Amino acid sequence: MTEAAKIAERYIDLWNETDAQSRKKLIASAWTEDATYVDPMMKGQGHSEIDALIGAVHQRFPGFSFVLAGAVEGHNDRVRFSWTLGAPDAGPIAHGTDFGFVAADGRLKSVTGFLDQPKA
Amino acid sequence: MTEAAKIAERYIDLWNETDAQSRKKLIASAWTEDATYVDPMMKGQGHSEIDALIGAVHQRFPGFSFVLAGAVEGHNDRVRFSWTLGAPDAGPIAHGTDFGFVAADGRLKSVTGFLDQPKA
């Protein structure tokens, strides 16, 4: 697995973590302290704000989880990967692509999310 | 046209500009002085370096031009758009997606390019 793929897997795993304590640890290991996240619906900076916005998604979509879709790509200090959000017994309700900057220590320092139109 | 769409159109136009003087002007109006560009093949910072790497693409693919593909998306200070590179009498030889950060004055301060697999 490439470094970019590991970063993306770790990122999706922490978005799916419902245990509050475990998620805090995963966030600390995957994001720099001053990391920023922004997508069309929400934004946050730092571990606490990022944790809060992930928690809000769990509250809004209980039982749903994120799954990586397609190849993870990385070059220089940049990564890009796509995902779907869905429930086990239904098709995905959302598709997106996240684009990140990786710090020297391998943690994410900036992620920008975009929503995608599902492929026909 | 949205602000994001205008930024993307201006960006594609300057990539296609073959006249050296015109391209310098377009670059100065569309990129901040310390702007950075990086993709899997090349990178540059500042107007001169960005101009040089665009010039290198023209030298490598004379007569080819970039065309926007699909919708331009923007939120917060971020834009995303896809493009193809092709010649008038042939199909595209490359597909890509660029992610940008927009400065307060509307100019690009950072662009990251990724190559895409053409849709089947």
Form type of chain A: globular
CATH class category label of chain A: Alpha Beta
CATH topology of chain A: Nuclear Transport Factor 2, Chain: A
Order of helices and strands of chain A: HHEEHEEEE
- What is the total domain count of chain A? 1
Strand content of chain A: 35-45%
Q: Kindly report the average pLDDT value of chain A.
A: 95
**Main sheet strand line-up of chain A:** 2-1-6-5-4-3
Q: Helicity of chain A, in percent?
A: 25-40%
Largest sheet of chain A: 6 strands, mixed
- Strand tally of chain A, please? 6
Distance between the termini of chain A: 29 Å
Largest interface: A-B, 16 and 16 residues
Q: Quaternary arrangement of the chains shown?
A: homodimer
Structure description:
The structure is a homodimer of 120-residue chains. Chain A has 120 residues and is of the alpha+beta class. Chain A has one domain (3-115): Nuclear Transport Factor 2, Chain: A, CATH 3.10.450.50. Chain A is built from 3 helices and 6 strands. In chain A, strands 2-1-6-5-4-3 form a 6-stranded mixed β-sheet. The radius of gyration of chain A is 13 Å and the shape is globular. In chain A, 25% of the residues are buried. The mean pLDDT of chain A is 95.
